[in-house]
Design goal:
Length: about 280
């Protein structure tokens, strides 16, 4: 049994009897505790790069530095500033998602266009991440004429591109150069479909998997930070997918890579050839 938090009011009738009113405020208190946690986390995440940035500014102001040292400090400052920029960007995305109406079933867009966009972004990011590493990522996407590529999804294209790109970006960021990232799109016989990203990276201890979509939860804080992570990525992905009735599943073992999948129900999908749901639900 879980503890319950009650708000209790006692009203005397005046004749020795009392009226007792009890209200279950457990959910309210939990929401309030989550809000407090979130504000504390955001403050901490902003304070850390800001403190470093202020420290570097003071160094530049007080020390006589060689042009090389000067350049070095400026590069470190740019890194901290971009960390804050990423954080603010992700916070804005979260708040926009929370405030915008749910994507309905009236706007359909092609899966192929979405995956093409994701592939372009993946190549660019991989190039950036593997610069100077002597090896690249082996990235595979479904071919343009692969089964299921002529399907359409109902929802907001930009939101889903961003969610899929986020999963692909994580796979690339956590997988060292020379590793592989496989993107799949598979339509099931019942008309549902699965988008998945499988990487050959370090994998995740199953003990952490259940918490990865919590805001600011990171298995390795410094590894995440070094690659520009904010700890909000998967929280945003889960939220965007939920808004499209899709479910995020994570499968991984330490040392055996990770697979992140988004499962879409049949009513969000249709074959463009028929322009209507193939399966009646
Ligand atoms: P971050 O900005 O830290 O990457 P995310 O919310 O995107 O935040 O991910 C949360 C955590 O999940 C990461 O810090 C990392 O520990 C873990 N993670 C996410 N994707 C992968 C992956 N493909 N391989 C290994 N670990 C991952």
């Amino acid at each position: 049994s879980r503890p319950v938090m009650l708000s209790v009011h006692i009203y005397p009738y005046g004749d020795g009897r009392h009226l007792l009113l009890a209200r279950d405020i457990t959910a309210l208190e939990q929401a309030e505790a989550m809000r407090r946690d979130f504000v504390a986390n955001v403050s901490h995440e902003i304070r850390t790069p800001l403190t470093v940035l202020v420290g570097f500014v003071e160094t530049l102001q007080t020390l006589e530095l060689s042009p090389q040292e000067h350049k070095h400090y400026l590069a470190l400052m740019a890194q901290q500033a971009s960390r804050m920029q990423n954080l603010v960007q992700d916070l804005l995305t979260l708040s926009r998602l929370e405030g915008s109406p749910l994507p309905g079933l009236s706007d359909w867009f092609p899966v192929s266009a979405m995956l093409r966009q994701c592939a372009i972004e993946a190549q660019a990011l991989s190039k950036l991440l593997t610069k100077g590493a002597g090896a690249v990522h082996a990235i595979t996407f479904p071919a343009a004429d692969a089964p299921g590529m002529d399907w359409e999804i109902a929802g907001t294209q930009a939101e889903l591109i961003s969610a899929f790109s986020n999963l692909i970006s994580n796979a690339l960021r956590y997988t060292p150069a020379g590793g592989s990232v496989q993107v799949r799109w598979e339509v099931q016989p019942d008309g549902s479909a699965c988008f998945s990203v499988k990487d050959s990276g370090p994998g995740i201890d199953p003990a952490h998997i259940g918490r990865l979509t919590e805001r600011f939860y990171r298995v390795d804080r410094s590894r995440s930070r070094d690659t520009g992570g904010t700890g909000l990525g998967l929280a945003i992905v889960k939220h965007s997918l939920q808004r499209h009735d899709a479910k995020l599943e994570i499968h991984s073992q330490l040392g055996a890579g990770a697979t992140f999948s988004a499962l879409f129900p049949a009513n969000r999908l249709r074959s463009a050839r028929h322009a209507q749901p193939v399966v009646d639900v």
